[in-house]
Amino acid sequence: MRILVISQMFPCKRHPTSAIFFANLMKELAPNVSELIVLTPRVYLPKFLAKIKKRWEKWFLDPMVSKENGMEIIRPYILYLRGVKYVGINSILMQYFLFNLVRKLITKRNIDIILGYNMLPDGVAAVRLAKMFKLPVGFWAIGSDVNDLANRSKINYYLSRKCIEDSNIVLTESKDLENSIKTFSKKPIRVETFYKGINVSNFQNLMTKSDLFEKLRLDSGKRYMLFVGRLIYDKGIYEIAKTFKVIAKQYPDFDLILIGEEIEKEKLIAEFGNSELLNRVLFKGIIPHEEVADYMKISNLLVFPSWAEGLPNVVMEAMAIGLPVVSSDVGGIPEVLKDGVTGLSVPPKNVEKLTEAVTRMIEDSDLREKCINNAKQLIGNEFDVKKNVKKLYEILLDVKNSYL
User: Fold this and answer.
1) 75-100: per-residue pLDDT in tens?
2) Confidence at residue 275, expressed as pLDDT on a 0 to 100 scale
3) Model's pTM, two decimal places?
4) Which domain holds residue 143?
5) Among candidate residues 330, 372, 367, the one with its CA nearest the CA of residue 349
6) Rounded distance, CA 155 to CA 88, Å?
7) Is the domain of 106 the same as that of 236?
8) Beta bridge partners of 36
9) Residue 237's closest CA among 130, 328, 372?
10) Same domain, 209 and 330
11) Quick one: how far is CA 357 from the chain centroid?
12) How far apart are the first and last CA of the chain?
């Protein structure tokens, strides 16, 4: 089976953690198929702009074509309009700019099936291209594409519905997302929840905590509350800030570590309010994925009060490594985080409940131990990418063989 994947999000030198879990799944899938080619389009920027803004130099770090982990990665340029309401139009632009390349690959490589990651724009482009070349196609819905982007404009919604109806299979991050997909159309749709999972082995046999404290240059006499994600309001970062103000007073040895793209860093700093508290907040920005595991190993709990999610990998990673989790009960999170069993869940946007849950997880050692053990067992049994990739291969093979 020869598979062509279209995904704007994929690890690169500019953003090494982009869609890292999907990339890991493709890495595991590659040895099981004849060929796996990933098209990961990037927005066109004239090279002279890199001389104007240094950060744009990263746009040109990656080669147009490379071989990585058994996959061929192709990075063509496309035109792209800024703004979420234009993501539908960007789907059409992506289709247009990829057409000749996709036609060439289908002809020369005998592609059997096309797979898009993220409904808007990649899934829409993948489905429309597959129809043009009469190939079976599937796409992955990840959460924000269905619950947010699809509803930002009429064209976004129309293209999303057509994408769902014309796809031979829709794979979703969670049962919650699967149910949302089914509301888009009254036509029969093949939609399945597939847990990509995580590479559980990455969270085993790590360095000792004492060595990690030294490596990360952190105080081993401190305890740490950890957040991993983009620093934007709908990830619940201001609820975290308000909660930490309380926790910092109750527990003088607790500091807060924030890992992720620092989009609203300055506003968050203003929320903390004073230099004394800020001295206990560690902004780490975007760091290599493997280093996130180091911070999880030395932390005492993960706090993830996001307002909307599919099934966030950071929650599963924390569970795999033995880090207690306090999270909002949104999207697919309740499918892995059972309140009082594998972690503690709270309603989104509720600072009081979040603070209560964090305090409870800190104070109740029996609860922590129970959640750690149950969570580790669940992730090892049901969310290991090395086990789940076999099911993905069978699904894609069935789609290919069933195509008329």
Assistant:
1) 999 999 988 889 999 999 999 999 99
2) 76
3) 0.85
4) 2-197+385-402
5) 330
6) 6
7) no
8) 3
9) 328
10) yes
11) 25
12) 17
